[in-house]
Design brief:
One of its GO terms (molecular function) is acetate transmembrane transporter activity. One of its GO terms (biological process) is plasma membrane acetate transport. It is a multi-pass membrane protein. Helices cover 77% and strands 1% of the residues. By secondary structure, the chain is mainly alpha-helical. It starts with a helix and ends with a helix.
Length: 538
């Protein structure tokens, strides 16, 4: 076991998370506490918890890795992830807290009383689909991480990781999950800033401007890997000092784009448009993010939580960009070799741990791995608690057993957490070679096509009807899943439409149009005046 120090650091982080969950086990005695911690989480803790929940493996591993492979084009994902939070803060943070109680479906049901079963059903199905799909990249990232640390095979790794995710939720409920996410968000934030500072000091002699200067000279590995001469050249310089291979490739490819040149890794206009739509509107429909606004006591505290998260994400994503450039510089021959061998997923997902190992050996590798594991477990716990809350509150309590007791609902929620973890593990085995950032992007596309139109229309459009909510969400869900799985199976087109990297270009506009058309054809606008007064109350 050659990485015992790194493993020990990761295990210490996991042990801390287990202790926190165990410590808060008594807070799962009622549904209100299990679902949303009784609304007693402070804005500061909630803000850090949302940072830990949101800055997942896709951000910590996927975005930095994408920057390391293609330069500035790999950063568009981060810009989309960040910009969406402004939309959340402006459009739905306060109304969501003013009207809802446990799940996103509560807001819709508050407006359309009497239509609860239909709305809860489509909301619950959408939540489960989203949460399972979002769990997959977290588990995939963990599988690759432990493969790097210990040489473990993929299957046992994802089984252990998936099991841990379920245990955290079952033991600690939302309160344990919140404190875990806050601490893990701080670990993730600290690990990234430490890597940034350490990289500038150790590789660029403490000169941060040197990172940009080097970026102007670097031919992105994605371009170099497509040139056989560059591949052979970098392979012969695998043990050279950082920068030597970069200089040699630049001399070989003097006219090639640099790491700060836009357009290197961008796909077609349709692919880019679809990804932008998904990222910008997706956060409006992510249940595991939106449920966090129910864990504080007021709309004012919900807004404050979002503001804390926005400031944290601004610093985090700025640091991710520079760390990605540092990784490109320090790992250049290795990245070109991985791409030339067709291992783009490994290159993207494992750039950060490889950089830590290169700069600081097992100790720094352990710090980075602990940060990555914190990101995965934090996001996964948030996803599971959101999904199980919807299962228990929307399905079991809302439809199957309206007269069920708290004890019965809690039992159903905990069993559901275990079942969902098993499903996510199975799908993670199937999708192990996918880039985690792209998998998360697909989830944003599904969210943008389901909850996002329904919630925004419910809060801001008086003509929205209950029939439009159900039909519009169902249309968005089916269409987005159809194009998502078509990409997984390698299908090139559906009814003449190209299968894109993200389904949002087709599914979100279709969901919006269907919602508007059905609203104009029907007339059940719900308890309109009462709802609007409550949603927009101060």
């Amino acid at each position: 076991m050659e990485n015992i120090v790194a493993l020990s650091i990761v295990m210490l982080g996991i042990a801390l998370s287990l202790f926190i969950s165990f410590y808060h086990r008594r807070s799962t005695s009622s549904t209100a506490n299990f679902y949303v911690a009784g609304g007693g989480i402070s804005p500061r803790v909630n803000g850090w918890a949302m940072l830990g929940d949101y800055a997942s493996a896709a951000s910590f591993l996927g975005v930095a890795g994408a920057v390391a492979l293609m330069g500035v084009d790999g950063w568009w994902l981060a810009l989309g992830f960040f910009a969406a939070w402004i939309v959340v803060l402006l459009l739905i943070a306060s109304p969501l807290k003013n009207v809802g109680k446990y799940t996103v479906a509560d807001l819709l049901n508050a407006r359309f009383k009497g239509k609860e079963k239909g709305i809860r059903t489509i909301a619950m199905v959408s939540t489960l689909a989203l949460c399972v799909m979002y769990l997959i990249p977290q588990i995939v990232g963990a599988g690759h991480l432990f493969g790097l640390l210990l040489g473990w095979s993929y299957l046992p790794t994802v089984m252990v990781t998936g099991t841990l995710m379920g245990v955290f939720v079952i033991l600690g409920g939302m309160k344990g999950t919140s404190y875990n996410q806050a601490i893990q968000g701080a670990i993730l934030f600290g690990a990234l800033l430490f890597l940034l500072v350490f990289g500038i000091v150790s590789i660029f002699a403490g000169n941060p401007v040197g990172v940009i200067t080097a970026a102007n000279e670097m031919v992105p590995p994605l371009l170099a890997a497509a040139n056989p001469e560059a591949v052979a050249l970098t392979a012969s310089m695998a043990n050279a000092a950082p920068g030597e291979a970069i200089t040699a490739v630049r001399e070989l490819m003097p006219a090639a784009a640099s790491a700060v040149t836009p357009g290197v890794g961008l796909r077609s206009l349709a692919d880019n448009a679809s990804l932008v739509i998904a990222l910008f509107f997706g956060v409006l429909g992510l249940p595991h993010i939106l449920i966090r606004f129910y864990t504080v006591s007021s709309a004012k505290e919900a807004r404050k939580s979002a503001e804390i998260t926005i400031w944290g994400l601004a610093i985090f994503y700025a640091a991710v960009f520079f760390v990605g450039l540092i990784a490109m510089y320090g790992l250049y021959p290795q990245l070109v070799a991985l791409l030339a061998e067709g291992k783009r997923g490994v290159a993207t997902n494992m750039t950060m741990p490889m950089l830590g190992d290169m700069m600081g050996g097992q100790v720094l590798l352990g710090v980075i791995a602990a940060g990555a594991m914190a990101a995965m477990l934090s996001t996964s716990a948030g996803l599971l608690i959101s999904a199980t809350t919807s299962l228990s509150h929307d399905l079991y309590k809302g439809i199957l057993r309206p007269d069920s007791t708290d004890e019965q609902q809690l039992r159903f929620a905990k069993i559901g957490a275990g079942c969902l973890a098993l499903i996510a593990i199975g799908m993670s085995v199937w999708l192990k070679d996918q880039n985690v950032a792209m998998l998360v992007g697909m989830c944003f596309g599904i969210a943008a096509s389901t909850f996002a139109p329904a919630l925004v229309f419910a809060v801001w459009w008086r003509k929205l009807t209950s029939q439009a909510v159900i039909i519009g969400m169902a249309t968005g869900l089916v269409t987005s899943l159809l194009f998502t799985f078509a990409r997984f199976f390698g299908v090139d087109s559906i009814i003449g439409l190209d299968v894109l990297i993200n389904p949002a270009l087709y599914s979100m506009p279709l969901a919006v149009v269907v919602t508007i058309v059905v609203s104009l054809m029907t007339n059940d606008c719900g308890e309109l005046d009462e709802f609007m007064a409550k949603a927009h109350g101060k």
